[in-house]
Amino acid sequence: MIKAFFSNCRELRMGSPYQPCRLTLEGEWTPELEAGSWVGVQASSRGGERLALAEWDLDQGVGFRIVVVDSRSQSVEQSAGIQGCCVALGWLATRWAGGRARRANFRRDLAALE
Questions:
Q1: Across-strand partners of 50?
Q2: Are 109 and 99 within 8 A, CB to CB?
Q3: 20 to 30 A Cα–Cα from 112, which one of 29, 63, 88, 102?
Q4: 69 pLDDT more than 90
Q5: Which domain holds residue 28?
Q6: What ranges make up the beta strands (E) of the chain?
């Protein structure tokens, strides 16, 4: 099981409610990920062997990528960039689901990594 801890969260832009955070991972196996610019949300799979995280992707405006860490296969998967701000992560059966901030309609804004 991998656990994620966020620290040093600060405003993305002055007055913004979205904050990039520093990431620290703990567990029997942890990949080497950049500590830098993470969204302070996470979701673990039912058995705890997979952990979904959101990393800020500011190259093309405000956006994020989903990073899935699998402790069983000792692998890391990354989604393509998603525009907007991630406000929540969760699991649907065997995949993650993340919601963008837009009119607070989480169901309509689900994205999934196959």
A1: 70
A2: yes
A3: 29
A4: yes
A5: 2-112
A6: 2-7, 20-27, 38-44, 50-56, 63-70, 75-78, 82-83, 86-92, 95-100, 110-112
- The residues with which 4 forms a beta bridge, in sequence order, are 25
User: Residue 77, Cα to own-chain centre: how many angstroms?
Assistant: 11
Classify residue 108 by its DSSP letter: T
Q: What pLDDT score does 109 carry?
A: 37
Contacts of 75 (CB under 8 A, 6+ apart): 69
The DSSP H or E segment spanning 84 is none
Tokens of 51: 């952990």
Domain count, the chain: 1
The pLDDT tens digits for 26-50 are 999 999 998 778 999 999 988 888 9
Could you tell me the CA-to-CA distances from 93 to 60, 67, 114 in Å, in that order? 31, 17, 11
Place of tokens 């009119």: 103
Q: What is the mean pLDDT of residues 50-59?
A: 90
